[in-house]
Amino acid sequence: MRDKIIIYHNSRCSKSRATFALLEKSSVDFEIISDVERVQ
Fold it and tell me: Would you list the domain boundaries of the chain?
């Protein structure tokens, strides 16, 4: 069984956008949580 990856994504952050792009291209199961919405 593979665990799901959860990332706290900030679309204003270049590293976060790069990580999101890599995950989209892979076959990894992941969940996105908006870091901007989480803080507010």
Answer: 5-39
Q: What is the pTM of this model?
A: 0.70
pLDDT, tens digit (0-9, with 9 covering 90-100), for 1-16: 568 899 999 989 999 9
Own/partner pairs for 28-34, CB < 8 Å, 24+ apart?
28/2, 29/2, 29/4, 29/5, 30/4, 30/5, 30/6, 31/4, 31/5, 31/6, 31/7, 32/7, 33/6, 33/7, 33/8, 33/9, 34/8, 34/9, 34/10
